[in-house]
Design a protein that fits this description.
By secondary structure, the chain is an alpha/beta fold. It folds into three domains: 5-199 and 362-436, 4-Layer Sandwich (Metallo-beta-lactamase, Chain A), CATH 3.60.15.10; 204-356, Rossmann fold (3-Layer(aba) Sandwich), CATH 3.40.50.10710; 448-550, Ubiquitin-like (UB roll) (Roll). The longest helix is centred in the last third of the chain and has 20 residues, at 490-509.
Length: 551
Amino acid sequence: MTREIRLVALGGLGEIGKNLMLLESGPDIIAIDCGLAFPKDDMPGVDFVIPDISYLIERKHRVRGIFLTHGHEDHVGALPFVLKEVNVPVYGTKLTLGLARRKMDDYFEGPFDFRVVAPRDVVNVGSLEVEYVRMTHSVSDSAGLIIHTPCGTLVFTGDFKFDQTPVDGETPDYHRLAEVGERGVLCLLSDSTHADRPGFTPSEREVGENLSRVFYQAKGRIIVTTFASNVPRIQQVIDAAYKYGRKVCVIGRSMEQVVEVAMDMGFLRVPLGTLIDVRDVRNYPQSKIVILSTGSQGEPLSALARMSVGEHRHVKILEGDLVVMAASPVPGNETTVSRVVDNLFRQGAEVIYRPESGVHVSGHASQEELKLMLNLTRPKFFIPVHGEYRHLITHAQLAVATGVPPSNVLVGENGTVFRLTPHRAEILGTIQTRDVFVDGYGVGDIGHPILRERQSLGEAGAVFLSCVLSKDTGEFITPPEVRSAGLTGTKHQDAVACEVINLTQDYLSTLSLEELQDKETVEDELAAVIRRLFRNELGRKPLVMCNITLV
């Protein structure tokens, strides 16, 4: 029997987020990462998006474990929803599992099996050996995976950059990567997020130097926002605050949780007396305060967004406040971030937000680091992962430039099934995948039709009509009742309602008793008639919902 492995991408290919890759070897399946994506502007009411795991559920008896590379939401956020359906051991480094546990507390009830591993540890699962290798990223305790299979060795980088001077002093394990490359790597699957950026990604330590300079020059209160999971960045904010005699107040649930977890596990060093409660901020001079806040992506309900419009319960923006945006907008969030920045300026704050300010660097490798990874591991085959499609294509071109034959480079998207043997790599085809929306406590309860209805409600308004008819005569028992929202001013609502009522009565009077029995069809046709009225009279296309009751 031919030795082969299959890789099935359930998320993370052709997009940023929702990372979930399956590796199949004989009877054994492992999942690599288990992430979510945040909703786009055209997804009103959606909390976040998770991968479609139908394929995984059908094969759950073969799943040996889930292997996490690091603690970012796009790699661990879907874990509670997946474990509800496929409850298997979950492997990860200490901090990664600590951050993942927060998601479990919010969305999962019942037992789960978290198993802590350290770099260089090897986990045996069926026919596979999974070895963790230390990497650097924008969250501490990040790792890549070296997976030994009957077909050969795979290297899965996870999110990474080659930081020579990381804040925690834990450099990538170059030696192990080179050693594996020397012995032979069948396939490399590598982070493509910044494949279109030339050069090298700057070290996180450069941010600390720039933050120190900003803190030295600031006269009043400093408010810093960054990704809650960026523990090295949080460490540098705390270090700068301590250096200049400032107290630090942490605001925002996710930021508070990460700080607590990182401190408990020893990944965040905070001098005694540096952290203060938000209620104690007023007891110190403004020149002695640093507020570390959520909201770097302009999230409407985040602490910083509330401050920017004067709605935060404890903190009001004051004239002379300095706000440091120590994060760059994730693609798609540019508008919301700009809105928050504008509002902060309106409140009288000074805002440092431009990329050239040096208060943020990426946690992802640029082109020269991606080429270095290719040259260290020297793979026979290459699959770019974790990126939008343009990133995957650019990364594929980099691989060819380093000597990987073009025929040995495979580019796929979500749903792609890759087949690898010791001598061949190919795309077998695709499986059906879709976005699964989480809305409150509902998972997959809403789909694109409901999203379109929500968009219509927001863009064009809505009309709601109800009436009760006699099932014996077809006559009205109660007059039609009409309500509208988002269509006209108050003074025109009565006229609009009257017009809709007359139209409804005229339309229903033309129908026979037999036709009225097909309630669903009548409601749909009446809604179409009402929509035409609004299109002709107002140039609007509202959402129209009709409810006809026969008694």
